[in-house]
Every structure is written in C-alpha cells, then in structure tokens.
Write a structure and sequence with these properties.
By secondary structure, this protein is an alpha+beta fold. It has two helices and 14 strands; from the N terminus they run H-E-E-E-E-E-E-E-E-E-E-E-E-E-E-H. The strands form two sheets. Strands 3, 6, 7, 8, 9, 12, 13 and 14 form an eight-stranded antiparallel β-sheet that branches. It is globular, with a radius of gyration of 26 Å. The N and C termini lie close together (4 Å).
C-alpha cells in the first residue's frame, strides 16, 4: 500500500472515530436510569394548581401500574395501567403531580356502589432503606399521601397492611381536577416539618428518596386493597431533565470504547495488507 493511501485510510478512520465518539459522549436529553423520577428546582414558579403553567417545565416520568398483591375479592381486577409522575421543589415546598387517564369521574355517590376515584403517594419513613412495598413493615413504616375523589386528603402512617393511621397534624395538601378523561392531582408538603415527629418522611435528604404510587378507579369498584400500584421508584438528590452526572461518564466511556475498536480494526487491516504486499 502506498504512503498516500495509508494516510488517507488513517484520516478516514480518525474522522469516523471522532464522529462516533462525539455521538456517544452526548447522551439523549431524557437519558436516566430506570425507576428514576427527576426532581426539578422551580424557584418562583407557582405549582400548587394541577394546571399551573410551571408544570410544563417539569419533566414527567411514565410509571407502570399493576394490580396490588392482596387477599381482598377481585384484587386482580384493576383498570389503570399507567400514571405520569412529576416532582419539583419550590421555596421550601415539595410538589408531586400525578396524571392518569380514567374514562369516568367517580366522586362521592357517582358510582353505583359509592366507590370513588383515588390516588396515593408512598414514602419510607427511614429513607436509608427500602421497606416492603405493601404499606411498609414494622421495622420501616411508610408515609402515605392520600387523595380521593370526594375531596378528602390524608397524611397517613402505616407499618404493614391493616395498620394505617392518620397523622394528628397533617402537613399534606392536595388539589385535583378532571378534564377530557384525565385526572390531575398535585400534592404539596413543606420540605422541612419541625413538629418533633419521628414518623414523618424527611424530604430534605441528601440521598435518593424512594417513592411508589397507587391509583383506584371507583368506576371499576376498586377500593382498599383492590388497587393499581407501581414498583418502588426514586427521586434522586440532584437531578434534572438530563439525568444525573454519571450518565455522561457512562456515555463517554462508551465513546472511548468505540474509538478503540475502530482503531484496532484499522491497524489490523493495514498490517494485513502490508504483509500481503498490496500496492
């Protein structure tokens, strides 16, 4: 092979490797680990209303739901399969927004048997470990933020199925709206709650915060343990639409690996042709 052809081939390989490296080193805007729900800092934006304009700037995660394991009759008969979840902090307040499709609006007395639409968000009390997802356990209880279509909002403590009790001084509010076959519910709670309670989840954590959601469709006679639930997901301590910093590192490593493979392949081709005496 002539020196000119060698230089041309090496140049083409280098350009190709650089293009591949640049592509791999720039992850897509929504790249983030499975089960992560980003938390946006939205200083100054009003977010307590379900249709507040500020929510358009907060990324949404599509969370899958399935029937909760339960011994209640018809526990496997649930109808809500997905819920969109958004989370944000703003001036000392933590917001969680749930949105899901439901063909019927079921509030007090609307369904034939009086069951109402409802939704809940669940957090572990001890944020350093992950409790049983079915309402926690004796060694790690859970806080539950519960909203129902009859207008009730409750902040609950549970240490397993059948142990749910309300907080005496609730700190959670919820606002909801139903339009075009879709429920939208926004929960709000102060990040810091100085009431001396050791049973309330600390939202100002430096580590990730586990979270799970549940939805009841009153029109399908869903209530109690007959509900659609998610797996454990989590809010990261420092996240945004592009995901946590280590995503960039992973994609950069992938880019370097591609460059190395291309380089080794090109070297092998050149060496083979050289030994074969090609011109």
């Amino acid at each position: 092979m002539t020196e000119a052809r060698t230089r041309a081939l090496l140049t083409a390989v280098l350009v190709g490797a650089l293009v591949l490296s640049a592509t791999a080193a720039a992850p897509p805007a929504d790249a983030r680990p499975a089960h992560e729900i980003p938390v946006t800092t939205a200083s100054g934006a009003a977010l307590d209303g379900p249709n507040a304009a500020g929510w358009s700037e907060v990324p949404a995660s599509d969370v899958a739901l399935a029937s909760a394991p339960s011994s209640v009759p018809n526990a496997g008969d649930t109808s809500i399969e997905r819920v969109h979840v958004q989370a944000a902090r703003n001036d000392g307040t933590f917001y969680v927004r749930l949105q899901w499709a439901d063909p019927s609006r079921n509030v007090s007395g609307d369904s034939p048997r009086g069951f109402v639409d409802a939704a809940a968000v669940q957090f572990p009390v001890d944020t350093s470990s992950r409790p049983p997802i079915a309402m926690g356990g004796p060694d790690n209880r859970v806080n539950v933020w519960y909203w129902s279509g009859d207008g009730a909002t409750q902040e609950l403590l549970a240490g397993g199925a059948g142990t749910t009790t309300p907080f005496r001084s609730p700190t959670v509010d919820a606002n909801a709206t139903y339009a075009d076959g879709t429920w939208t519910v926004v929960y709000t709670r102060p990040v810091a709650v100085d009431d001396g309670s050791a049973n309330r989840t600390t939202l100002a954590t430096d580590g990730r915060l586990d979270v799970a959601v549940a939805v009841w469709n009153g029109g399908n006679d869903e209530r109690s343990g007959q509900k659609a639930v998610s797996e454990w997901h989590y809010f990261p301590s420092d996240s945004g639409p592009a995901g946590p910093p280590y995503q960039t590192l992973l994609w950069t490593v992938a880019g370097v690996a591609i460059v190395a493979v291309v380089g080794v392949t090109a070297f092998g081709v050149l060496r083979t042709r050289g030994e074969g005496g090609g011109s």
